[in-house]
Amino acid sequence: MNQKYSFKRKTLPALAMAGPVSIWMILFVTLPMLYIIYISFMSRGVFGDVVYTFSLESYNTLLDSTYFKVIVKSLKAASLTTLLCLLIGYPFAYYIANKPKEVASKLIMLIMIPFWTNSLMRLNSWLLLFQTSGPINKFLLFTGVTDTPLNFVYTNGLVMVGLITSMLPFAVLPMYSSIEKLNKSLLEASADLGASKRTTFFKITLPLTFPGIFSAIILVFIPSLGMYYVTDMLGGGKVLYIGNIIKNQFGAIRNWPLGAALSVLLIVITGLLIFIYTRFAKIEDMEVV
User: Fold this and answer.
1) Buried b vs exposed e over 91-114: b needs ≥16 C-beta within 10 Å?
2) Would you tell me how many other CB atoms lie within 10 Å of the CB of residue 281?
3) Domain named ABC transmembrane type-1: which ranges (predicted)?
4) Pick from 151, 149, 166: nearest CA to 231
5) What pLDDT digit, counting tens, does each position of 204-263 carry?
6) CB contact set of 267 (below 8 Å; sequence gap of 6+)
């Protein structure tokens, strides 16, 4: 009787805490994901409806040169966005982590302030800055860098600017958390043994902060593949990535199986990255601040 009471005493609080989260995850994550996977193996009807007949047509379509090129282009763009966010974000995160707590909190607040405004407003500001009569072109004309206004709007370059500025905080925060938790005594020991700052950084700091770096890679790379509104706003319909194709398939074109197949591709990429991460670090290290 006591054992039964002890079991209830231990399990009921755990179920009370995990139960609502589990129900939420099942209803709004697991079931929709399973439905997307199920739809990806169906066919498109004549009028855009879903024909519930098993078919690999959507996955075969992904190998078509048109879609395959978009997928490769999207992966390259997401990789470049991730790389630049790491190159810009790591020094900034390192700088913040070496500041006193009160200063570091203010600097982190500066990172987050742009996200207090609507993302569409931020993207519109880039369009205003880089349009032919905008401040950037006026400055280039005034300094004599160019004789005619340059075309920045609706180009891959401006889309990359939008992606980098949108995703940079998601790279800085996990790297800051990893650097801030670094055991400073290891750095002091390295200096006492005669190692240079460069050697200490590459032999101690960088390897020990790798969990934060990989967290940043996951948090930047995966959303960069699916952020269709950035390419819609700054690409003007001329720049297409996977996210745009998925949106169009579920919206205007109404080819849900193909859109689902592309979504499954993103799910597989996400799962692969998380699997690689768990091979090198603990999942708890993915916390930001």
Assistant:
1) ebbbebbeeeeeebeebbeebeee
2) 17
3) 71-277
4) 166
5) 888 889 889 988 999 999 899 888 889 989 988 888 899 999 999 998 888 999 999 999
6) 33, 36, 37
Other CB atoms within 10 Å distance of the CB of residue 238: 12
Distance CA 287, CA 189 (A): 27
Helix 31-40, helix 256-280: angle, nearest 10: 120
* Alpha carbons 185 and 147: distance in angstroms, whole number: 56
| In contact, 281 and 211? CB cutoff 8 Å | yes
Both tokens of 223, joined, read: 């959303």
What is the DSSP secondary structure assignment for residue 220, as one 8-state letter? Answer: H
Burial track 187-214 (b if 16+ CB lie within 10 A, e otherwise): beebeeeebeeeebbeebbeebbebbbb
Q: Is 196 left (phi over 0), alpha (psi -120 to 50) or beta?
A: beta
Residue 124 · residue 233 · CB < 8 Å = yes
- Please name the residues in contact with 121: beta carbons below 8 A apart, sequence gap of 6 or more: none
